[in-house]
Amino acid sequence: MTFAEQARAAKDGSRALVTLDRAAKDAALHAMADALLAAAESVLDANALDVAAARDAGTADAMVDRLTLNPTRLHGMVAGLRDLAALPDPVGDVVRGWTNANGVRVRQVRVPFGVVGIIYEARPNVTADAAGICLKSGNAALLRGSSSALNSNLAVVEALQDGLAWLGLPREAVQLVTGGRETTAELMAARGLVDVLIPRGGAGLINAVVEGSKVPVIETGTGNCHLFVDSSADLDAAIAIMLNAKTQRPSVCNALETLLVHADVAPDFLPRALVALGEAGVTVHGTPAVAAYSPAVVPAAEDEFDAEYLSLDLACDIVEDLDAALAHIRRYSTGHSETIVTNDRRSADRFTAEVDAAAVLVNASSRFVDGGEFGFGAEIGISTQKLHARGPMGLQEMTSTKYIVDGDGQTRA
Amino acid sequence: MTFAEQARAAKDGSRALVTLDRAAKDAALHAMADALLAAAESVLDANALDVAAARDAGTADAMVDRLTLNPTRLHGMVAGLRDLAALPDPVGDVVRGWTNANGVRVRQVRVPFGVVGIIYEARPNVTADAAGICLKSGNAALLRGSSSALNSNLAVVEALQDGLAWLGLPREAVQLVTGGRETTAELMAARGLVDVLIPRGGAGLINAVVEGSKVPVIETGTGNCHLFVDSSADLDAAIAIMLNAKTQRPSVCNALETLLVHADVAPDFLPRALVALGEAGVTVHGTPAVAAYSPAVVPAAEDEFDAEYLSLDLACDIVEDLDAALAHIRRYSTGHSETIVTNDRRSADRFTAEVDAAAVLVNASSRFVDGGEFGFGAEIGISTQKLHARGPMGLQEMTSTKYIVDGDGQTRA
User: Fold this and answer.
1) Structural domain tally of chain A?
2) I need a surface site. Which of A85, A281, A283, B95 has the fewest CB within 10 A?
3) CATH code where residue B103 lies
């Protein structure tokens, strides 16, 4: 099939999903899980081909690891589909509604987008995850995975389609988009056939999709997250929050990347903080003012305050006051998650009002900014754009709305 | 100022608006209204220059009329700003919130986008309207008007800026973007400086912005609106709704463009409908099956079912059943407003569930799909896209949200 044929088939397939109730969608998710389990051997065999090809091509070990499936990871994919079946269905929720003076009743109701395109990188487990999220939210999925995972993705999608077919649902509701780079361009140009595109991956992929797509994009972004320790901060809490945000899982977008310390509290806070960070294996990249507190501080280059390290590294500066902290964050923030530790109500209020980010935290670790922690269940990503969805995305963010207007013959005067 | 300087000034200006409470924004709107009234003479003088230039250039009378301001229209602009002051402020509304098991409190709160770009065509009254809507929703406005209205727009914006300055607010919160076509390209490329772009105008303008913009766009679209008269329809109600939707204001996007009649009811309905439409001055463009009912029916070319006439013209066909009506609508709909007249619950339910449009109506005129009729007050347009806003847009749709997370030292386990 050409891409255009695939997209049209997805549009047709999406019509079968729009009117499914929750029970039917949950049954489909369990059938997809069963089919994936039944196909375990062929999926692992296909994955072995991808892994061997990646090794032959000299791919780095970390990348090969991300590409690799094993029985544990495959069972994780199966469990993920069953977990989705246990989540509430946002489709059909009435967002708001009213009755006009003339008796016309209006309801704004959640509906699926229709066809969702997802462009992602090497991990083949995303294939099952993204297909499941789209199905639960009533959307057909066009999955554009990495060519390095092609055999794995083909085997996974075939299994998922078998599960759909067992229940008489169209196989075309979940499709893998194959083909060369020009196919990605076609996907990004398919306005009218594809309703939404979601890139899941690194900054390069996301930027390419946002800048090149004519289809509306939901951007899941990078996180250069800051922690500002205010002059009134509880220093024990500040140390605990700093360590948790930096070290609990350094490779994720809600991890801490820059520490800003109010000058009034730096002499009390920084010596303790630097020791604690050192003991946790964190390298601090500081300005000269910070380096004065410890020989272990590595000099920070100016552009390091732009860095999303995603590692046990932390940029650090001392700022004169809250205004200087706000100015620093305004300059370097990627609008993901920004934290203040303070006991001053006015500082907390100014920080939450003035910082322009998806999430603003007071006296809590930025690691809480996460769909799982927010109780959304499904893990779709964290949006750093301002349209449609901002912050952790759940199934609700995978829907649009429609107005249903009920009358008994009313006309406009 | 270059465009980049303007955009940066708008971003700075937007910071002053983010923390304004409703009273301050309403005072600013009244000051803008007062300043516009005070500048009436210079605005009308400037407009006379634009009108004279348009006449000299041989511009069509209808276009010259849209460009022309007079004291009545200017007072309408002033009244529009005061009306905005009377509307509720969406900023600060808590959309949802909860407390996690560990005591962390989460609120999703409405916030302004920041900087909104609006690209529009000749009417200079849009300048005041768009500036007021942006201000009330806490957004700085970059207004890209038509070069044919340049003098008018400069005079209007200068007056509005005077009003802001009277209250000590930054003039840069409302700016006119001048310069040639390359400036429009810069505006569409200003990702990171401009948060949202809204085109207001014809299909050509909207398509150019949607396809060319790297800044997220809210698309206000065209309406090829259908009315399906089901076999169980109350025919008196169907006639009334049809006439109202077609003739009450034919030039707008929620006006009726295509009538589809169930074959079972065509012999009863069409003779009456064609007479009523003829008496209302409507030209019916029909298939041969429709033309068999009246010599006044003009043969419809195949592509006429794609037309958004915006005039006293109506395409018409007879369809075998509800499925055929749904298939026709699926093929030709622009996803704006689609109507069924029926007394059959199952037909109504299928129509509302299966038709993919911003608004789906049962037994009511599509003219109700309108921000004013929905009680939203402000008139920003009707979105036919599925991301962020779908259907009539009010001030609420001019906002994003932010998560505010409050703790007392919690860290993630």
Assistant:
1) 2
2) A281
3) 3.40.605.10
